[in-house]
Amino acid sequence: MTRARTIAASAVGFAAILTSAPAHALPTMIRLGYTDCASCHISPQGGGPLNAYGRGIDAAQSLSGGEYEPSPDTRLTHDVRFHLQEQGAWPSTTPRTNFFRPRLMYRNVTNISGAFRVSGMVTVEGREAPRPGLSYDPSARGSTLFVNTALIHYKPAAALELAFGRDQLPTGVNVPDLAAFIKSRNRLGYYDAPTQLKVFWSAKRYHVTPFVYAPGGNEAAGERESGAGSLAEVDLIGNQRLVGGATLVRGTAARGDRRTVGAYARLGFGQWGILAEHDVTDRTRLDPIAAGFRQTASYAQVFWAIREWFVASGTGEQLHVDAPFQEHLVAGRLELAARLSPKATVVLATRLERNMRTARITPSVTLQAAFKTVQ
Protein backbone atom coordinates (compact mmCIF):
# COMPACT_ATOMS: atom_id res chain seq x y z
CA MET A 1 0.00 0.00 0.00
CA THR A 2 1.45 3.39 -0.94
CA ARG A 3 1.91 6.25 1.52
CA ALA A 4 -0.80 8.24 -0.25
CA ARG A 5 -3.25 5.36 0.01
CA THR A 6 -2.42 4.87 3.69
CA ILE A 7 -3.09 8.54 4.42
CA ALA A 8 -6.28 8.47 2.38
CA ALA A 9 -7.52 5.34 4.14
CA SER A 10 -6.87 6.90 7.53
CA ALA A 11 -8.68 10.06 6.49
CA VAL A 12 -11.68 8.03 5.38
CA GLY A 13 -11.60 6.19 8.70
CA PHE A 14 -11.61 9.41 10.71
CA ALA A 15 -14.37 10.83 8.53
CA ALA A 16 -16.46 7.74 9.19
CA ILE A 17 -16.10 8.33 12.92
CA LEU A 18 -18.35 11.35 12.67
CA THR A 19 -21.31 9.07 11.96
CA SER A 20 -20.08 5.69 13.17
CA ALA A 21 -20.48 3.21 16.07
CA PRO A 22 -18.92 0.16 17.74
CA ALA A 23 -18.59 -2.94 15.60
CA HIS A 24 -18.63 -5.18 18.66
CA ALA A 25 -20.09 -5.26 22.14
CA LEU A 26 -17.48 -5.55 24.87
CA PRO A 27 -17.48 -7.67 28.06
CA THR A 28 -16.17 -4.64 30.02
CA MET A 29 -19.76 -3.99 31.17
CA ILE A 30 -19.00 -6.21 34.18
CA ARG A 31 -17.63 -3.09 35.90
CA LEU A 32 -21.18 -1.67 35.97
CA GLY A 33 -22.72 -4.83 37.37
CA TYR A 34 -23.84 -6.51 34.12
CA THR A 35 -22.82 -10.13 34.63
CA ASP A 36 -23.86 -11.28 31.14
CA CYS A 37 -25.03 -9.99 27.75
CA ALA A 38 -28.76 -10.59 28.16
CA SER A 39 -29.52 -7.25 29.82
CA CYS A 40 -28.59 -5.20 26.75
CA HIS A 41 -28.66 -7.61 23.80
CA ILE A 42 -31.62 -9.33 22.23
CA SER A 43 -29.61 -12.55 22.06
CA PRO A 44 -28.33 -13.85 25.43
CA GLN A 45 -25.05 -14.75 23.71
CA GLY A 46 -24.50 -11.08 22.91
CA GLY A 47 -22.88 -9.67 19.81
CA GLY A 48 -26.17 -8.98 18.03
CA PRO A 49 -28.51 -5.98 17.95
CA LEU A 50 -29.29 -4.23 21.23
CA ASN A 51 -32.68 -4.23 22.90
CA ALA A 52 -34.37 -0.94 23.90
CA TYR A 53 -32.58 -0.89 27.27
CA GLY A 54 -29.24 -1.64 25.64
CA ARG A 55 -29.69 1.20 23.17
CA GLY A 56 -30.27 3.55 26.09
CA ILE A 57 -27.06 2.37 27.78
CA ASP A 58 -25.23 2.70 24.45
CA ALA A 59 -26.30 6.34 24.18
CA ALA A 60 -25.45 7.12 27.80
CA GLN A 61 -21.90 5.80 27.39
CA SER A 62 -21.04 7.97 24.40
CA LEU A 63 -19.25 11.32 24.40
CA SER A 64 -22.32 13.05 22.98
CA GLY A 65 -24.45 11.66 25.84
CA GLY A 66 -27.88 13.20 26.07
CA GLU A 67 -31.25 11.63 26.67
CA TYR A 68 -32.17 8.51 24.76
CA GLU A 69 -35.47 8.62 22.94
CA PRO A 70 -36.67 5.03 22.45
CA SER A 71 -38.41 4.09 19.24
CA PRO A 72 -41.84 2.47 19.38
CA ASP A 73 -41.96 -1.31 19.89
CA THR A 74 -41.60 -3.13 16.60
CA ARG A 75 -41.31 -6.69 15.34
CA LEU A 76 -38.21 -5.78 13.35
CA THR A 77 -34.91 -4.62 14.84
CA HIS A 78 -32.02 -4.20 12.44
CA ASP A 79 -28.89 -2.21 11.85
CA VAL A 80 -26.39 -1.54 9.10
CA ARG A 81 -22.77 -1.17 10.09
CA PHE A 82 -19.79 0.04 8.09
CA HIS A 83 -16.43 -0.90 9.53
CA LEU A 84 -13.03 0.37 8.36
CA GLN A 85 -9.66 -0.98 9.42
CA GLU A 86 -6.17 0.18 8.49
CA GLN A 87 -3.32 -2.00 9.77
CA GLY A 88 0.43 -2.10 9.37
CA ALA A 89 2.73 -4.92 10.51
CA TRP A 90 6.46 -5.30 10.10
CA PRO A 91 8.14 -8.57 11.17
CA SER A 92 11.84 -8.20 11.90
CA THR A 93 12.87 -10.28 8.88
CA THR A 94 10.50 -8.96 6.20
CA PRO A 95 9.41 -5.57 4.82
CA ARG A 96 6.45 -3.77 6.33
CA THR A 97 3.00 -4.82 5.10
CA ASN A 98 -0.16 -2.72 5.17
CA PHE A 99 -3.76 -3.48 4.43
CA PHE A 100 -7.04 -1.61 4.39
CA ARG A 101 -10.19 -3.61 5.13
CA PRO A 102 -13.69 -2.16 4.60
CA ARG A 103 -16.62 -4.25 5.83
CA LEU A 104 -20.37 -3.73 5.52
CA MET A 105 -22.64 -5.68 7.92
CA TYR A 106 -26.40 -6.05 8.05
CA ARG A 107 -27.94 -7.51 11.21
CA ASN A 108 -31.60 -8.33 11.72
CA VAL A 109 -33.86 -9.63 14.49
CA THR A 110 -37.52 -10.27 13.62
CA ASN A 111 -40.03 -11.22 16.34
CA ILE A 112 -42.53 -13.73 14.98
CA SER A 113 -44.42 -14.05 18.28
CA GLY A 114 -43.78 -13.65 21.98
CA ALA A 115 -41.84 -16.93 22.01
CA PHE A 116 -40.32 -17.13 18.50
CA ARG A 117 -37.93 -14.90 16.61
CA VAL A 118 -35.35 -15.20 13.84
CA SER A 119 -32.01 -13.42 13.61
CA GLY A 120 -29.21 -13.12 11.11
CA MET A 121 -26.08 -11.26 10.08
CA VAL A 122 -24.68 -10.94 6.56
CA THR A 123 -21.30 -9.40 5.77
CA VAL A 124 -19.87 -7.97 2.56
CA GLU A 125 -16.18 -7.15 2.76
CA GLY A 126 -13.41 -5.85 0.59
CA ARG A 127 -10.70 -8.02 2.13
CA GLU A 128 -11.06 -11.37 3.86
CA ALA A 129 -9.83 -11.97 7.42
CA PRO A 130 -9.27 -15.72 7.96
CA ARG A 131 -7.77 -17.02 11.19
CA PRO A 132 -4.21 -18.40 10.86
CA GLY A 133 -3.94 -21.50 8.68
CA LEU A 134 -1.89 -24.12 10.55
CA SER A 135 -0.63 -27.55 9.58
CA TYR A 136 -2.71 -29.06 12.39
CA ASP A 137 -5.76 -26.79 11.98
CA PRO A 138 -6.49 -25.24 8.55
CA SER A 139 -8.72 -22.16 8.60
CA ALA A 140 -12.29 -22.12 7.33
CA ARG A 141 -12.80 -20.72 3.84
CA GLY A 142 -13.62 -17.03 3.70
CA SER A 143 -15.98 -15.29 1.32
CA THR A 144 -16.66 -11.76 0.12
CA LEU A 145 -20.33 -12.36 0.97
CA PHE A 146 -20.71 -14.38 4.17
CA VAL A 147 -23.66 -15.36 6.37
CA ASN A 148 -22.24 -15.13 9.88
CA THR A 149 -25.48 -15.82 11.73
CA ALA A 150 -28.82 -17.39 10.79
CA LEU A 151 -30.79 -18.54 13.84
CA ILE A 152 -34.29 -19.52 14.91
CA HIS A 153 -34.94 -18.71 18.59
CA TYR A 154 -37.57 -20.18 20.89
CA LYS A 155 -38.11 -18.79 24.38
CA PRO A 156 -40.57 -20.94 26.37
CA ALA A 157 -39.81 -19.14 29.65
CA ALA A 158 -38.12 -15.95 30.83
CA ALA A 159 -35.00 -17.82 31.97
CA LEU A 160 -34.83 -20.34 29.12
CA GLU A 161 -34.08 -19.92 25.41
CA LEU A 162 -33.20 -22.32 22.59
CA ALA A 163 -31.47 -21.30 19.36
CA PHE A 164 -30.86 -23.35 16.22
CA GLY A 165 -28.88 -22.42 13.11
CA ARG A 166 -25.41 -21.17 12.23
CA ASP A 167 -23.41 -18.92 14.54
CA GLN A 168 -20.12 -18.68 16.38
CA LEU A 169 -19.89 -21.06 19.35
CA PRO A 170 -20.46 -19.56 22.83
CA THR A 171 -17.37 -18.29 24.70
CA GLY A 172 -16.70 -17.10 28.23
CA VAL A 173 -14.73 -13.92 27.47
CA ASN A 174 -16.18 -12.78 24.16
CA VAL A 175 -13.44 -10.36 23.13
CA PRO A 176 -13.70 -8.89 19.61
CA ASP A 177 -9.95 -9.24 18.90
CA LEU A 178 -9.76 -12.06 16.35
CA ALA A 179 -5.98 -12.23 16.72
CA ALA A 180 -6.29 -13.30 20.37
CA PHE A 181 -4.90 -16.81 20.84
CA ILE A 182 -7.99 -18.00 22.72
CA LYS A 183 -10.01 -17.24 19.58
CA SER A 184 -7.65 -17.75 16.64
CA ARG A 185 -6.48 -21.19 17.85
CA ASN A 186 -9.85 -22.51 19.04
CA ARG A 187 -11.91 -22.32 15.85
CA LEU A 188 -13.51 -19.03 16.84
CA GLY A 189 -12.46 -17.00 13.82
CA TYR A 190 -14.59 -14.70 11.72
CA TYR A 191 -15.66 -17.47 9.30
CA ASP A 192 -16.19 -20.18 11.92
CA ALA A 193 -19.99 -20.44 11.99
CA PRO A 194 -20.98 -24.07 12.62
CA THR A 195 -24.57 -25.29 12.57
CA GLN A 196 -25.67 -25.71 16.16
CA LEU A 197 -28.41 -26.15 18.72
CA LYS A 198 -27.79 -24.32 21.98
CA VAL A 199 -29.76 -23.72 25.15
CA PHE A 200 -29.43 -20.63 27.35
CA TRP A 201 -30.58 -21.19 30.92
CA SER A 202 -30.10 -18.49 33.54
CA ALA A 203 -30.92 -17.80 37.17
CA LYS A 204 -30.06 -14.85 39.38
CA ARG A 205 -26.46 -15.93 39.89
CA TYR A 206 -26.00 -18.75 37.37
CA HIS A 207 -25.83 -19.12 33.62
CA VAL A 208 -25.49 -22.41 31.69
CA THR A 209 -25.26 -22.88 27.91
CA PRO A 210 -25.01 -26.48 26.62
CA PHE A 211 -24.71 -26.92 22.86
CA VAL A 212 -24.21 -29.44 20.08
CA TYR A 213 -22.81 -28.51 16.68
CA ALA A 214 -22.11 -29.78 13.17
CA PRO A 215 -20.17 -28.38 10.17
CA GLY A 216 -21.16 -25.01 8.77
CA GLY A 217 -20.23 -25.97 5.20
CA ASN A 218 -17.14 -23.84 4.56
CA GLU A 219 -14.58 -25.95 6.42
CA ALA A 220 -11.57 -27.44 4.65
CA ALA A 221 -11.84 -31.05 3.48
CA GLY A 222 -11.39 -33.41 6.41
CA GLU A 223 -11.94 -30.60 8.93
CA ARG A 224 -15.74 -30.72 9.07
CA GLU A 225 -16.04 -30.96 12.82
CA SER A 226 -19.04 -32.11 14.86
CA GLY A 227 -19.26 -32.10 18.62
CA ALA A 228 -20.78 -30.82 21.83
CA GLY A 229 -19.88 -28.59 24.71
CA SER A 230 -21.09 -26.37 27.48
CA LEU A 231 -20.44 -23.04 29.14
CA ALA A 232 -21.31 -22.55 32.82
CA GLU A 233 -20.70 -19.49 34.98
CA VAL A 234 -21.63 -18.10 38.39
CA ASP A 235 -21.66 -14.72 40.12
CA LEU A 236 -19.12 -15.78 42.74
CA ILE A 237 -19.76 -13.25 45.52
CA GLY A 238 -23.29 -12.22 44.64
CA ASN A 239 -22.66 -8.53 44.01
CA GLN A 240 -22.58 -8.72 40.18
CA ARG A 241 -18.91 -7.77 40.03
CA LEU A 242 -17.08 -11.10 39.82
CA VAL A 243 -18.07 -13.88 37.43
CA GLY A 244 -16.21 -17.17 37.16
CA GLY A 245 -16.90 -19.86 34.62
CA ALA A 246 -15.76 -22.95 32.77
CA THR A 247 -16.03 -24.19 29.18
CA LEU A 248 -15.95 -27.68 27.71
CA VAL A 249 -15.79 -28.60 24.00
CA ARG A 250 -15.42 -32.03 22.41
CA GLY A 251 -15.12 -32.09 18.62
CA THR A 252 -14.39 -34.82 16.07
CA ALA A 253 -13.39 -34.58 12.41
CA ALA A 254 -11.97 -36.94 9.79
CA ARG A 255 -8.42 -35.58 10.19
CA GLY A 256 -8.37 -35.13 13.94
CA ASP A 257 -10.24 -34.48 17.17
CA ARG A 258 -9.98 -31.91 19.94
CA ARG A 259 -10.99 -31.71 23.60
CA THR A 260 -10.91 -28.29 25.26
CA VAL A 261 -11.28 -27.44 28.94
CA GLY A 262 -11.13 -23.80 29.94
CA ALA A 263 -11.69 -21.46 32.88
CA TYR A 264 -12.44 -17.74 32.74
CA ALA A 265 -13.23 -14.75 34.96
CA ARG A 266 -14.71 -11.29 34.54
CA LEU A 267 -14.05 -8.79 37.33
CA GLY A 268 -15.10 -5.14 37.46
CA PHE A 269 -15.41 -2.33 39.99
CA GLY A 270 -16.24 1.28 39.12
CA GLN A 271 -13.88 2.41 36.39
CA TRP A 272 -11.69 -0.67 36.02
CA GLY A 273 -11.80 -4.40 35.57
CA ILE A 274 -10.03 -7.58 34.51
CA LEU A 275 -10.94 -10.20 31.91
CA ALA A 276 -9.03 -13.50 31.98
CA GLU A 277 -9.26 -16.89 30.31
CA HIS A 278 -7.06 -19.99 30.17
CA ASP A 279 -7.77 -23.11 28.18
CA VAL A 280 -6.11 -26.45 27.54
CA THR A 281 -6.79 -28.33 24.29
CA ASP A 282 -5.72 -31.92 23.67
CA ARG A 283 -5.63 -32.63 19.94
CA THR A 284 -5.11 -35.69 17.80
CA ARG A 285 -4.11 -35.49 14.13
CA LEU A 286 -4.12 -38.15 11.42
CA ASP A 287 -2.83 -35.86 8.66
CA PRO A 288 -0.17 -34.68 7.79
CA ILE A 289 1.23 -37.00 10.48
CA ALA A 290 -0.47 -39.13 13.15
CA ALA A 291 0.14 -37.38 16.45
CA GLY A 292 -1.37 -36.40 19.76
CA PHE A 293 -0.37 -33.11 21.36
CA ARG A 294 -1.50 -30.39 23.74
CA GLN A 295 -2.18 -26.70 23.16
CA THR A 296 -2.59 -24.09 25.92
CA ALA A 297 -3.70 -20.49 25.47
CA SER A 298 -3.88 -17.73 28.11
CA TYR A 299 -5.45 -14.28 27.94
CA ALA A 300 -5.56 -11.45 30.50
CA GLN A 301 -6.85 -7.92 29.94
CA VAL A 302 -6.88 -4.99 32.36
CA PHE A 303 -9.18 -2.15 31.33
CA TRP A 304 -9.80 1.35 32.67
CA ALA A 305 -12.79 3.50 31.77
CA ILE A 306 -11.14 6.91 31.94
CA ARG A 307 -14.53 8.28 30.96
CA GLU A 308 -17.72 6.37 30.20
CA TRP A 309 -16.99 6.92 26.51
CA PHE A 310 -13.20 6.44 26.62
CA VAL A 311 -11.64 3.10 27.63
CA ALA A 312 -7.96 2.16 27.78
CA SER A 313 -6.79 -1.43 28.09
CA GLY A 314 -3.68 -3.57 28.21
CA THR A 315 -3.63 -7.25 27.26
CA GLY A 316 -1.11 -10.04 27.73
CA GLU A 317 -1.29 -13.43 25.98
CA GLN A 318 0.63 -16.69 25.72
CA LEU A 319 0.30 -19.70 23.43
CA HIS A 320 2.16 -22.99 23.76
CA VAL A 321 1.85 -26.00 21.45
CA ASP A 322 3.65 -29.29 22.08
CA ALA A 323 5.68 -31.33 19.60
CA PRO A 324 5.44 -32.25 16.78
CA PHE A 325 3.82 -28.85 16.06
CA GLN A 326 5.92 -26.91 18.54
CA GLU A 327 5.03 -23.28 18.98
CA HIS A 328 5.54 -20.75 21.76
CA LEU A 329 4.22 -17.22 21.32
CA VAL A 330 3.74 -14.32 23.71
CA ALA A 331 1.99 -11.06 22.86
CA GLY A 332 1.03 -7.74 24.38
CA ARG A 333 -1.57 -5.24 23.19
CA LEU A 334 -2.41 -1.66 24.16
CA GLU A 335 -5.72 -0.18 23.05
CA LEU A 336 -7.66 3.07 23.25
CA ALA A 337 -11.37 2.96 22.34
CA ALA A 338 -13.48 6.12 22.10
CA ARG A 339 -17.26 6.03 21.64
CA LEU A 340 -17.86 9.49 20.24
CA SER A 341 -21.61 9.08 19.84
CA PRO A 342 -24.19 6.27 19.98
CA LYS A 343 -23.37 5.79 16.31
CA ALA A 344 -19.60 6.27 16.39
CA THR A 345 -16.51 4.50 17.70
CA VAL A 346 -12.81 4.69 16.91
CA VAL A 347 -10.15 2.28 18.16
CA LEU A 348 -6.38 2.69 18.07
CA ALA A 349 -4.32 -0.34 19.08
CA THR A 350 -0.75 -1.54 18.94
CA ARG A 351 0.32 -5.17 19.34
CA LEU A 352 3.73 -6.77 19.84
CA GLU A 353 4.13 -10.52 19.30
CA ARG A 354 7.30 -12.52 19.98
CA ASN A 355 8.05 -16.05 18.84
CA MET A 356 9.95 -17.50 21.79
CA ARG A 357 11.49 -20.28 19.70
CA THR A 358 12.88 -18.11 16.89
CA ALA A 359 13.10 -14.74 18.73
CA ARG A 360 11.17 -13.15 15.86
CA ILE A 361 9.24 -10.03 16.88
CA THR A 362 6.19 -8.77 14.99
CA PRO A 363 4.81 -5.34 15.93
CA SER A 364 1.62 -3.95 14.40
CA VAL A 365 -0.57 -0.86 14.64
CA THR A 366 -4.30 -0.85 13.89
CA LEU A 367 -6.79 1.96 13.39
CA GLN A 368 -10.48 1.02 13.30
CA ALA A 369 -13.57 3.13 12.71
CA ALA A 370 -17.18 2.03 12.42
CA PHE A 371 -20.63 3.52 12.06
CA LYS A 372 -24.14 2.13 12.27
CA THR A 373 -27.76 2.96 11.80
CA VAL A 374 -30.36 1.33 14.04
CA GLN A 375 -34.06 0.92 13.36
Summarize the structure in words:
The protein is mainly beta and 375 residues long. It has a single domain (3-374), classed as Beta Barrel (Porin), CATH 2.40.160. The chain is 7% helix and 52% strand. It has 3 helices and 16 strands. It has a 16-stranded antiparallel β-barrel with strand order 1-2-3-4-5-6-7-8-9-10-11-12-13-14-15-16. β9 (242-253) and β10 (256-269) form a beta hairpin. The longest helix is centred in the N-terminal third of the chain and has 15 residues, at 3-17. The two termini are 37 Å apart. Residues 1-25 have low confidence and may be disordered.
Short description, anyone?
The chain has 375 residues and is mainly beta.
List the helices and strands and how they pair.
Layout: H1 3-17, H2 52-60, E1 76-89, E2 97-111, E3 116-125, E4 145-157, E5 160-166, H3 181-184, E6 195-202, E7 206-214, E8 226-235, E9 242-253, E10 256-269, E11 272-285, E12 291-307, E13 310-321, E14 327-341, E15 344-355, E16 361-374
Antiparallel strand pairs: 1-2, 1-16, 2-3, 3-4, 4-5, 5-6, 6-7, 7-8, 8-9, 9-10, 10-11, 11-12, 12-13, 13-14, 14-15, 15-16
Low-confidence stretches: 1-25
The count of DSSP E runs of length 2 or more, i.e. the number of strands, is: 16
The biggest sheet, with number of strands, parallel, antiparallel or mixed sense and barrel status, is: 16 strands, antiparallel, barrel
Proportion of residues in helical segments:
under 10%
Number of helices: 3
Summed up, the domain count is: 1
CATH superfamily: Porin
Question: How much beta, percentage-wise?
Answer: over 45%
User: Helix and strand string, N-terminal first?
Assistant: HHEEEEEHEEEEEEEEEEE
